[in-house]
Structures are given as structure tokens and as C-alpha cells.
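User: Can you predict the 3D structure for this chain?
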Amino acid sequence: MNIPFEDILKAAQAYEKDIVAFLRDMVRIPGESANEKAVIERIKTEMEKVGFDEITIDPMGNLIGRLGHGKHVIAMDAHIDTVGIGDIKLWTFDPYEGFEDEKVIGGRGTSDQEGGMASMVYAAKIIKTLHLEGDYTLLITATVQEEDCDGLCWQYIIEQDKIRPEFVVITEPTSCRIYRGHRGRMEIKVSVQGLSCHGSAPERGDNAIFKMAPILLELQELNHRLKDDAFLGKGTLTVSEIFFTSPSRCAVADSCAISIDRRLTDGETFESALEEIRALDSVKKANAVVEMYLYERPSYTGLVYPTESYFPTWVIGEDHVVTQSAAIAYKGLFKTDPVIDKWTFSTNAVSIMGRHGIPAVGFGPGHEDQAHAPNEITFKDELVIACAMYAAMPLVYLEQLKRKERT
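Assistant: Here is the predicted structure, written as C-alpha cells:
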């Protein structure tokens, strides 16, 4: 069929006020990780209003709205949990009441990433209104706990709900660019043991904090020589936390541990990252234990789905049918070529593509630099752009599949 790009864009523009009102409603409901129930219920109400064919909430608490029942299963995802607000003194407006003017909407979660959720729901409205259904089933997912453990929700959806789409659109903020990958990450713990004694005679003990000191210096040096990749960039590590135990302030510390935020570029694995640290002379000398953290916090439903804190790198080619479908949809709607790039941060695609090999592509309203920042905002015109893209992409993808079959 000829895809009515102009009609899709006009419809998205016509729904701007509805998208904005829905987003502002979500912002007014605090929904940090594992406390998303009220936000999920609000999204369910909006999906019912729009007219989804089926709406379900799985045992973890993820909401899945279905449109159509065709052969090709396509998903579009937004995590709807947010981080906290941090120091309220850094905000110039109420982060949960938010604000709006002619161009922007302010509030916690506007860019990261309830804006993508609002645009997706009204993309479904456009599909129904303009009769853009085809031989596809569209799943719109509102997923939980991403800020706590990115990808856990999709591990559950794929492994337990037994849903495996042909591809997934990640609606995290991309400034309305097309993103085709990002570095992975992992959370590492390094622990050393010491021996406590009275602080007046430290030579009688073995100070665990002093044992950790050369490890910290070697880790700082290791960061400079990690693998680089021409597209995704360099692997990095930083020490993000330090802990100790000691009988008192007048005693030698008997244990010390650190947390490492490790970003993995293409070609790095959790095994290689752990071995790099275990191979350090200071780690060997201190008999340090190097391990990954385990995430096992209950979701808001009470379900626990334990996973190691490893979030794999992923990338798809610029010539991949999914990347090209997004690019063709963008050019059809906006009469210009899109920017194709990558995220700096991590998304649910660590499970979708990184763990399970399901192609993913990113396109979302909002800007990365707004994520987790005080005075977070998003942009009304980007909400409309994203809405139009989400409505157009399924049919463009089907056309690209047919074209590949013919060739």
C-alpha cells in the first residue's frame, strides 16, 4: 500500500494536546522503580480510551497493549519508572506538578522517559483512525524497574511471558534521531579482608582500607587502556561506591569493598571485564574477590526475578532492515534524511538485543542530557515527531520485508 505519510503527520499534530495532557498526568504520579503501580494504572486507562484491542499486566507488573493480530509481531517499549528527584533545591519548579509553555513540558520523567510512552499510545490512535493496520501485531509495552535494572523487564517478557517480537523500537530519548546501538555495562564488586585491632597499635592488624588503596590506583590506570570501538566508543570503568567495616573509629578496618560501574564496548564481555581486574597485581596481592552484583529486588507486584547485574553491549548495522525501515519512515514523514547514531547510556535493549538477539532500534522524544537531571524537560514538537514515526514504522517495515523477498 502507499503509506499516507502526510496524513499521519497531520494526525500526530492534531493529537498534540492529548499527548501533552497524558504526559503531564503521568508526571504528576511519582513512580520510582518498584513503585510504578499507579502510573501503570493511569496508562491502562489511556489505552482503554484510545481503544487498544487487548491490555494485559503481566506478573512482574509490565503493561502490554495489543493492536491487531497479524503475523509479524512488532513491539515498542517505554520504561515508565523514573529516578528520584535528588536535591529539591536544585529544581526551579515542582518536579511532579511540572509546567508547560508553548514549546516544552517540565517534570521528572518527561524525557526519561514517559514522553515516549505518551507518543506511543497516540500512535496507536492514529493507526486505528487512519486504518493503518496490516499483517502485523503491535505491542506497546510500559515496562518497570528499568532505572534499577535495565532490561530485567524484557528478560521476563521474553523468558516468562514467551513474547518474542521480530524487532523492538526503544523510545528512550534520542532527540528524534535513530539510534542503532550502545555500550553495555555491568556492576562489579571488589572486596578485601583485613584484621582489626586497636587504632593505637595499627601494626597489630591488617588495614583493609590500605589494602584497597593500590587496587584503586590500578583501576584508575586500567580505565585508560580499555578497548575502543569506532562506532560505540571506548570501554570505561569508574569506582562509584566504597564501603568498609570496623569495630569503631578507634580501630583498624577489617574489610573494604568497592563498586565499579563498567561500561562495555563492542567485543568486551563480562568474563573479559572480570578477568582484567583479577589480573591486576594489586588484586592478586590482596587476595581480593572480584564478582558481579546480583539484582533481586521485588517488583511492585512482589515478584522477584533475580539476575546478575550484566547488561550486554548491542549494535545493529546501518543497512539492517530495521534501521532502514526507521530511516525510510523518517524521510517519508519529514522529507529529510535522519541522523543515525548511538546512545551514551544504557536501555532495555541490553536484554532485547544484547541477551536475546532480537533487533532493536532507538527513536524517542527528549534529550539524553535531560535524563536524571534537575529541571528535566521535553519538547512538544518532538512528542509529535515521535508519535508520527511510531504510527508509520510498522507498515514501512512490512514493505521493506516484501522488497527483500522480491530481491
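The chain has a mean pLDDT of 97. The first strand starts at residue 54 and ends at 57.
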